[in-house]
Amino acid sequence: MTSAAVPDHPWLLPNALVAAEPARRSRRTPRDWLVDGAFFLVALGFLAVAHDDARQAAPTFALNAGPAWLLDTDTLVGLLCVAALWLRRRWPVGLALAMLPIAVFSVTAAGAMLVVLFTVVVHRPLPVASGVLGAHLAVVPLSLTVRPDPGMSQPAATVFVATILGAMVAWGMFVRARRQLVVSLRDRAERAEAEQQLRVEQARQVERTRIAREMHDVLAHRISLLSLHAGALEFRPDAAPEEIARAAGVIRSSAHAALEDLRAVIGVLRADTDAPGSATPEPPQPTLTDVPALVRESRSAGMRIEFTDRVTTPEAVPAAIGRTGYRIAQEGLTNARKHAAGAAVDVRLSGGPDEGLTVRIRNRWPVGGPTTPDIPGAGTGLVGVAERVALAGGRLEYGRDGAGDFRLAAWLPWPA
Q1: From residue 64, how far is each of 152, 328, 372, 377 by CA, in Å?
Q2: What's the CA gap between 11 and 393, in Å, rounded?
Q3: Which among 63, 73, 145 is positioned nearest to 102, based on CA atoms?
Q4: Confidence label for 59 from pLDDT (cuts 50, 70 and 90)
Q5: Where in the chain is the domain with CATH 3.30.565.10?
Q6: Which residues pair with 346 in a beta bridge?
Q7: Is the pLDDT of residue 118 over 90?
Q8: The CATH number of domain 287-416 is 3.30.565.10
Q9: What burial letters (b/e) apply to 121-139, b meaning 16+ CB within 10 Å?
Q10: pTM for the complete prediction?
Q11: Which residues contact 304 (CB under 8 A, 6 or more apart)?
């Protein structure tokens, strides 16, 4: 699973990433320029109004003009504080602490100070923001002593300033909480997308494994046929030339088909479904209607098979059930050919909708016990069949019955 990427904006960062953000950001986005410009204009407008009111000695904004030199100095300091707002994203705490002594005597810089304190609340953890705000609140009584407000008493002015700061803090905390919620939702969305991609990839791998397993069963069947014909040629060197030619033809076609199946297996295991143009259509998988062809192929290889088909509507069998029934019949014939060479095999299909599909393969138990096959198998054929039957919701039985024959029987559900 891939980790969530760092968001593009510092206001979308959790507490642990806020402090390190200035080092990562090298340029402002258009939105950053718009917000910074708006704050700059607001602070500059507040400075102009405060300067004009102070010059007219009007208490409209609770400002005290003071001597002329103080007004000129206040205006110059206010302009510097407003210009420093362009650095607030990189050093918000540093600017807030640098403006702390200015807050004692300057009135025109009040707008810029509020913007910087708002930035600290939004971009820095609560303990840091609380310390900076506490320091600014502590200098409020001293500032009102140096520049008293002629319109209200000092306690009332202190409460007024504290109320403004409290409103600014509440706004900043709301913005910070909202942006942390946004980054949390974005992180969840990215994680959900990564998990969905992982589930898709796992489904692809499961499907590849399933296809490879089916091809393995087909390949084992073909190689067993090839071995059977080769054994017939070995024990009948005096057979008629026509029979030898026919057996050699079957061996050649079986070997060619086995190579094609092996190539298909390798292709499935190496396939990269994400590469453009790599997806190739899969050949149609055999179903229950292909069982007669499978029986004819085994008979042509010399097996003695009695085949009974009592399925009411074989063309109506669900595709998954039909494939499973075919694989059961294929595995039963392959095992009979390997372990009971020359024994008669009885293959029976029966069932219908609501009744279920029954597949039975029975062969005589060889004298002296099962023979060791010339071609070693993987030993997982019946395990794979049992897994298929279990996934289909059916039942599987195999082993020697009361008559001593080996019996492989499966029942698969067939809904109407």
Answers
A1: 11, 98, 110, 100
A2: 54
A3: 73
A4: very low
A5: 287-416
A6: 306, 362
A7: no
A8: yes
A9: bbbbeeebbeebbeebeee
A10: 0.40
A11: 342, 343, 344, 345
